[in-house]
């Protein structure tokens, strides 16, 4: 249903480095580079970062949360580690999240501007 998403960033190159490292763990790479926007994806840009010069950090209570599908728990682990190594912060370490309908494995990170990003997979066992 969703074709693509985008997040605002205050420093394009800093965020490009963060997202290149973090999204690579999920199979996404930089596909488009323009003066004020960069698109990441597998075959077409699915995830965009857009320069918003002077943007204040995203407020923790904003409610904004983007979740990306991972192929495996190892990919979720790699996503979390890459995000932390690239300047992000943990918002929930990798692990099983029991839910009333389904069990899932996820990790949550916060990018350098405060955007909340999750990677999730659904283990079969």
UniProtKB/TrEMBL annotation:
Supply the Pfam families for this chain.
Answer: Glyoxalase (PF00903)
The protein's UniProt keywords, in alphabetical order, are: Lyase
Q: Does the keyword Cell wall biogenesis/degradation apply?
A: no
Which InterPro entries does the record cross-reference, listed alphabetically?
Answer: Glyas_Bleomycin-R_OHBP_Dase, Glyas_Fos-R_dOase_dom, VOC_core
- Gene Ontology molecular function, alphabetical: lyase activity
Q: Cite the VOC domain residue spans from the record.
A: 1-122
N-terminal signal peptide: none
Record's protein name: Lyase
């Amino acid at each position: 249903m969703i074709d693509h998403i985008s997040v605002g960033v205050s420093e394009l190159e800093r965020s490009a480095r963060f997202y290149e490292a973090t999204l690579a763990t999920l199979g996404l790479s930089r596909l488009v580079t323009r003066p004020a926007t960069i698109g990441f994806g597998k075959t077409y840009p699915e995830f965009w970062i857009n320069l918003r010069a002077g943007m204040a950090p995203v407020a923790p209570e904003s409610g904004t949360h983007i979740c990306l599908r991972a192929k495996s728990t190892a990919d979720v682990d790699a996503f979390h580690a890459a995000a932390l190594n690239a300047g992000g912060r943990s918002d929930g370490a990798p692990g099983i999240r029991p839910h009333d309908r389904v069990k899932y494995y996820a990790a949550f990170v916060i990018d350098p501007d405060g955007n909340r990003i999750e990677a999730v997979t659904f283990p079969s066992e």
